[in-house]
Amino acid sequence: MADKTLRSDDRVVPYSAGAPGWRQLYLTEDWWAVWIGGTLLAICTILVGQELASGGKGGELLKTWLSKPGSWTSNPWDAFTVKGVNVLGGVGGAFVLTLVAFGLGMRMMGRRFVPFAAGFCAVFALATTALVLAGQSVIKYYNLEYALWALLAGLLISNTIGTARWIRAATCTEFYIKTGLVLLGAEVLFGRLLALGLPGVFVSWVVTPIVLVTTFWFGQRILRMASPTLNIVISADMSVCGVSAAIATAAACKAKRSELSLAIGLSLTFTVIMMVVMPVVIRALGLSNVLGGAWLGGTIDSTGAVAAAGAILGDDALQVAATVKMIQNILIGVVAFGVSVYWVARVERSAHDARPSAMEIWRRFPKFILGFVAASLVFSYLATSSAGGERLVDAVLGHSTPTLRNWFFCLAFVSIGLETNFRELASQLKGGKPLVLYVVGQTFNLCLTLLMAWLMFEKVFPHAADVLQQ
Prior knowledge:
This protein has helices at residues 24-27, 29-53, 60-65, 88-108, 113-134, 137-141, 146-158, 165-168, 173-187, 190-193, 198-222, 228-241, 243-253, 257-285, 289-299, 303-313, 315-329, 331-347, 358-364, 368-385, 387-419, 422-429, 433-460, and strands at residues 81-82, 85-86. It is globular. Strands 1-2 form a two-stranded antiparallel ribbon. It has one domain (3-469). The relative contact order is 0.16. Helices cover 74% and strands 1% of the residues. The protein is an all-alpha fold.
């Protein structure tokens, strides 16, 4: 009974069918992602605020308790020394914090804590290994991020010796990443994102839904893909913001975990290619850094890869690219809501079914998106309330939330790998339709985004990016 509140066969489920009414507030994974993410944000804000009030820089105390591996060149153990400070204790703190937080959530949802804790040790060890590998100087130069290594580590185990049952008790992909998305909401500050005004909004909020809908239509009507869930997850992954959008969309339409894994694999592969190739193309075409940055921000899936590609072109390109990408990230919640409504009203409804009720749409809506939006609103308000509020938000977002979010996402990528078998993916890749869908959709995305960015930043608002230089 308890397990049914978390899973339905191998699908990503946003709610518990077995938890009616108010009980959903504490029995479902989505709500526990909100409670855990919100509690962690509150604790970090209080601790940083107290440190600032006592004359400190803010966040220094948390760095000793909460850290992740850093960079290294030849000796992997150097990853645990960041700027001359040993961070092993901080890595241990991250382990204890995540174990207690997610273990409590699992226990409250009816799962046993001890089996979860045993499996979590293995999952966390693999996540730590992935973060260490991503910190190697050559790997870091090419921006092969921790998500790739975490996914590969899990895939290597699941497709060779197989994932042991005791480890599977802690492969809670959706739980980890939903909580991470709540933390991501705190980093989406509306005031700063809208610094570019209408140009950034047009590039992010007009192009994205057009590409999403067109790609889904192309997959269903032209390619005739058998699985509409795989079609929409790939479309959202490619058009919105990569992995985060894929997870949210998968929850909204109850996609299979194998479909989610395939979409993420395509995203990670093309992100690396585009991050390297696009700056070269921008320079070859003679585009300005501002236009090039807007093009990067609207097309490359990963925020980290967007920043890396923008930095190749220059600081102005980096600022424009990162800002456009973060404006686009706001659409995660909008897309998840739209997909959940469409799936209930159209895809899963037969001609003889009654019109779905508002309650059914609410039940299907991924509730962790509410946490994402709430965190964004609260921190946006704090950042604009006073100079002290802006300093507080900067201190919290400068270390605490990115560190926690990276850990949660890394745990999720490891879990995805551990739950994915290539034999299952083979059936999805048959005929090459998912690859064709991604390539065609991304090509359309690249062309339309470049056109919109050129119109907005070169013709209509040629001085819009000047505000970022102030």
